[in-house]
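This section describes the prediction task in plain terms. A model, or a person checking by hand, is given the sequence of a single protein chain and must write out its three-dimensional structure as a string of tokens. No templates, partner chains or ligands are provided. The sample shown here is typical of the held-out split.
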Amino acid sequence: MAKRPVLTLVAVLGLAALAVVAVRFASAKKPETVKGAPAVSHTLYDFEMKRIDGKPEKLSAWKGKTVLVVNTASKCGLTPQYDGLEKLYETYKDRDFVVLGFPANDFMGQEPGTNEEIAQFCKLKYDVSFPMYSKISVKGKEMDPLYTWLTTGTGHDGDIEWNFAKFLVGPDGKVIARFHPKTAPNDPALVSKIEAALPAKTSG
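The expected answer:
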């Protein structure tokens, strides 16, 4: 008869141990996700951004096009690249090519302006007509999910080095190549990659 309380105690202790395990399992820290990032981000088209006028736009709007994604700044030694980017856009836009500009103030405070000021500067100084988006962060703790994806999940990984880093994205929404900020928009290596990704010219 004395064995029954012992068995009962063992059973109680066993249930208590199981309960502790269950609590620990339930409270285990779940993998962190970047706020605002899609659950699965395999392509450029998984993201929604704001145009420089504040209007939201899904980047799937550019599906099927060859896209050059560039983080820009208005007070940088590389700012004159706006002119080359605009010429690149004008040259190839009729062949399903687009440049997307993302102003960022992550490097030496070289993009201090508001979205309105940036838009005005780009239009008046360089007559930019390619799509520009609202100012974001492209590095550090405040990095936008788009750039988290670009720099950690595309095979062209690594922190953004400076203003005017360039990611070439193919018509399938995947990154084809990455170019250093100092790579000029008319650099033969960049131009050849763009032309290789574009549909063939139609005769006539």
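For orientation: The helical segments are 3-26, 81-92, 115-126, 145-152, 188-197.
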